[in-house]
Design a protein that fits this description.
This protein is α/β, with parallel strands linked by helices. The protein has a single domain (26-284), classed as Rossmann fold (3-Layer(aba) Sandwich). The protein is built from ten helices and eight strands. The chain has helices spanning 2-19, 79-86, 105-122, 140-150, 177-184, 193-196, 200-205, 229-245, 262-265, 273-284; strands spanning 26-35, 46-53, 59-65, 91-95, 128-138, 166-170, 219-224, 250-255. It has an eight-stranded mixed beta sheet with strand order 1-2-4-3-5-6-7-8, with helices on both faces. The radius of gyration is 20 Å and the shape is globular.
Length: 285
Amino acid sequence: MIKALYYSFSICVFSFLLSSCAFQTLHRTKDVNFISSGNQAGLTQKSLDIYAPKKAENLPVLLFFYGGSWKSGKKEMYNFLGNRLARRDVIVVIADYPLSPDYQVPAMQASALAAVNWTKDNIESFGGDSDRIFVSGHSAGGHLASLIAVKEDELKPSENGKELAGSILIDAAGLDMYGYLEETSEGEGKKYLNAFTDDPAVWKKYSSMYFLKENLAPMLILEGERTYPSIQAGRERFMKRVEEKGIDDVTVKIYPKKKHIPMITQFLWTGGRVYKDVLGFIEEN
């Protein structure tokens, strides 16, 4: 009798899980070129991956840029993020971008903007809502996402003309790279000059805090309590400027005891707080 009840219970649990989002069938489209070779802007050819539920229709979209100190990383390392969010009914686009020392931050920003434009013009073919595109990134990728968010008017005209729905910055570096490199370019910051050059004018042009505007789309900043001091300091200066500009829709959430790398690896566990925060933000906007 006990065995029979246990068997019945196991079948019920398995059936529930099978029908839940954890087992939702996905459609993965890999290596889609969003920058072709020989383009007029002179950017290197790059591609992106798209993760979507099968039969997706009018779903929100998260465009993600990975971290790696502006010098390393590749989109394939983040398939766990694409898979897990797509099973929660968010279409995920993960884009490569040019890296230092071969390329500098101007090319990285231009590539990120091109990825956004491609997504705006094409994501409806994958079941995405072009009105609800969120840019996101971790570390150096969070820096690129922040630049797109504050410089939204630099997005090239696209067929649908839609604006961003919001941005999600995950332990973002470089929000005030100008201030950081002014203090450290001869010391610990010297390692970033391959990406940011030795020109202070470039440092400032690619520090998002100096381009904040009152009409900023909603922004969610997730930061680890034990992240790098430079990230904490940059976020504090960024938020001071947010307050000075009277911008209301920027939310900061600090994750107790979390360090820099765990702020992205926590996405491996779908039951964690980060999914509640990210999905809640997307649903609200």
